[in-house]
Amino acid sequence: MSTAPRIILTRQEQRNKIWHQSLVKAGFQVWDLPLLRFAAKDIAPEFFTTAYDWILFTSPQAVDVFVASGMTTHTAKLGALGAGTSAALAAVGLPDDLGFAGLDGAELARFFCQQVETPATVLLPGAAKRMADPRITLEAAGFQVCELPTYETLATEPDTLEADFQSSDIIFFCSPSAVRAFTGAFAQRPSCVAIGETTAAISRDAGFPTQVAQSPDLNAMVRAAGCEPLTTSLEIES
Questions:
Q1: Is residue 3 very low, low, confident or very high in pLDDT (cuts 50, 70, 90)?
Q2: What is the DSSP letter of 41?
């Protein structure tokens, strides 16, 4: 795969590992450029004692902070947004009772409303800054919802990032935050693949030549980059 571009991974360092391994095994050159970092937030005492019917985790980081803080699920059933979040639950011995497979919080909320009857209480551990969904859809359907901020996503300090871009590089952007962190650190605008339309809109506005993955997974990102899909098994764990 000597003609393949070098792929630049921009997710947080701890989230890049499996993608990096899969790409290297497939013969790609890979550069880890973690543009974002997570900062765990303190959790208010009342969350440790309150029981909920459902807990819907919207990111792997929310799972990590929830478990590290010593919180327990009590008798709640659990759901996850995306394969990565479901895998994070499995890694700490927690089930994914909902079995949702979709793209975003709005889809998660719609699926949940189809599967679960009201009344029910729902806890949403996730980022401190988040989109309106899934909360707005769940509340409109009659669920009692409480959001639990578990972490902040911060840009990596620009002076800690290297800038050794090549003309054939392709950047993989998995969030609008990563795009903004890149533009805050570098003047270059290499070609990129966005994991979805929300991220793609931000990257286009910032001047990146942009392709969009058809689904939020590594194989779709590779295809959007104009390369052959991976034949290794690691990428299914991403």
A1: low
A2: P
Give the amino acid at 52: Y
- 109-140 burial: b if 16+ Cβ within 10 Å, else e: bbbbbeebeeebebbbbbbeebeebbbebbee
What pTM value is reported for the model?
0.73
* Residue 46 and residue 16 share a domain: no
DSSP string, 82-127: SHHHHHHHHHTT---SS----SSHHHHHHHHHHH-PSS-EEEEEEE
Select from 99, 131, 153 the last residue of a domain: 153
Is the pLDDT higher at 89 or at 82?
Answer: 89
- Residues with Cβ within 8 Å of 27's Cβ and at least 6 positions away in sequence, in order, are 1, 4
| Same domain, yes or no: 140 and 165 | no
Beta bridge partners of 51: none
In a domain, 206, yes or no: yes
2 within a domain of the structure (yes/no): no
Choose among 39, 36, 41: nearest CA to 148.
Answer: 41
Same domain, 172 and 231: yes
Identify which of 188, 183, 190 has the alpha carbon closest to the alpha carbon of residue 158.
183
- 141: CATH: 3.40.50.10090
